[in-house]
């Protein structure tokens, strides 16, 4: 431990000071003389340091034992009067007998973490070739060769190659993908593969241990393990694919980690790493998380992962159907802001840009130019609000929609269709 020297050396100390012996008997109180010279002050400082060192060791042990778990790690203290502030700590073990928790987690989970390389077909008119597109990570969750990764890792790829920890490089085929949740499932022709165990992300607490495993910057750094804590839960971020709720962690996540696991202290996957926030402000639609730090404020230690409980049903649907079925109305829309409403003398709501022919909304009588203001009596002001209401229903459910058309209010009933019919 490093302690800042917060002892006041006062060279104006009086020649003598009275100090209690600490005993409760009637013996005379000890008297110690301190002369005003550097040697006496030096002895005092050394004694004080020894006492403080013992004191902090005791405090550290007591703090670690309270709650039933021992926390080992690196602690740096800075003195502020009589207070001691912990600047940083890293939990390394959950009990006295397991000082290598992170190493053990890595041994258990790493074999099920794969590298993913993608290539895209390129043609210059007379010659075609596959050009490397990018790389990411993935998690084997089924011994028959099923792998989950991020949609953005494989999006647009003509060829997908999976790199196993045993050195094999196998071609993969895309089973299904979902841009809205940024998830995709791949399959390789291999059996008896090591499998990662999925945990329960609903049990996470801020401050829990978080370990990220993946291939940052590609194959050269395959199997990189970083550790930190769960920094936040249910973080609402706006991505290229819409609003998402993510787990926040300060475990280092870099390009190439995408699709890899975020693991808890039980070596269970509780999240799928997806994005890293590197700056705030100044981002554009092509850079929704500020990755390129364009005129933004730099930030550190803000990585995000898709909660595994959110990913499980998506993975199941991707395996079963190749897509995720969601309730939809068969319309293309955009939000009408308060400023838009004032400028064009229309209500705040969701403007219908296009109606799918023979879709649910078309059959209900919707027209391009309508403005949706409420669904089942609940006011709707944005696309996100409309989406959240629809996702509480199932395909086939009927909803009552209030809309504005040419200065008049209409009420139409819509039977929700499958989102697969709008693709």
From TrEMBL:
The Swiss-Prot or TrEMBL record annotates one GO molecular function as: serine-type endopeptidase activity
**Keywords for the protein's UniProt record, in alphabetical order:** Hydrolase, Membrane, Protease, Transmembrane, Transmembrane helix
Region: Disordered; residue ranges are 1-33
GO BP term (any one): proteolysis
**UniProt keyword Magnesium present:** no
Report the transmembrane regions from the record.
53-75
Biased composition of type Basic and acidic residues is found at 1-12
Query: Which protein family is named in the record?
Result: Belongs to the peptidase S1C family.
Name this polypeptide is given: Trypsin-like peptidase domain-containing protein
- What organism does this protein naturally occur in? Aceticella autotrophica
